[in-house]
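Team,

Forwarding the record for the chain on the shared tracking sheet. I've put the sequence and predicted structure together so nobody has to dig through attachments.
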Amino acid sequence: MADDQEVERAKAACLRLLAHRARSEAELRERLRRRGVEEQVAAQAVADLSAAGLVNDREFAESWIRERRELHATGRVGLRWELRRKGVPEEIIQTALGGLDDEEELELALGYARKKLGDQPAAGPKELARLRRALISRGFGGDIIQIVIERLSAEL
């Protein structure tokens, strides 16, 4: 069993991190590990915070998705990758991304693409290739990107 004082110090460190932004359980355990906290102590501290409702990977994933879509126009592929990097379990990622609408994703990608093109009177092959790379870097999937490029090409 982990020392109670060590667990309390670890929980205090987690709360300081959580004061800045929400974090996944894996992120908290990793940050504690980097501070030299024993794995058992870190696991107990994160479990206690989770039991108290202060850490919740499902809520974290939903919040992350909402924020990234609103502020950064990030597609499903990018969101999945980001959440994996944050240590969110795959089943939670699947559930959180399952609520996203394909049409909403397309509109998000179109909006970003139009903003990226700006006031350019006509987008040639070079600009469309650049736009394709920008959409890929934003985490949009190939199907969405193809539809965006086709629609924008037809508008020109």
